[in-house]
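sanity check this fold:
=====
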Amino acid sequence: MAAPKDLGIEVIGVPEGATVELDLRLESVMEGVLVTGTARAPLTGECVRCLEPLERELEADFQEMYSYPDADDRSRDADTGDDAEEEDRLFLEADLFDLEPVLRDAVVLALPLQPVCREDCPGLCAECGARLADDPDHHHDAADIRWAALQGLAETMRDGEKDNAPRERGDDPQEK
């Protein structure tokens, strides 16, 4: 089957028209037809950390009951009193069932919310946008203004190390 439009989320999804392989099992039961299946489809998207394109395979399992059109008449005798469940029921129409809403729910729920190209993807530099995986030693010498006072203190500490060199007697200004 060809993938319908918008089968995914903003950063990853099944491309429209891509082949979705379905493995279905149909069982006739008293109330209708129980459809159990697995959908396999290619995914395309981008890494949320470094924005590189990525491609994956998705496998999503689903199970749904499609009721016979006259199932309403049968269920009135055994009223469950649950109106919300009544609204979510799917019905067979002329011995056919629409699998798209079930497939859409199964696939979208199986998608990774934060897809990454690899688990340890370092992402992009917050200052310049460079891809950190391409240059692991990437850094900027510009100091954050909030840390400027501490950087100045660190520089005076380094200068003070020079002052702590061994002195000869009489060189200490506090001895006088």
About this structure: The chain has a mean pLDDT of 83. Residues 125-161 form one domain. The longest strand covers residues 32-46.
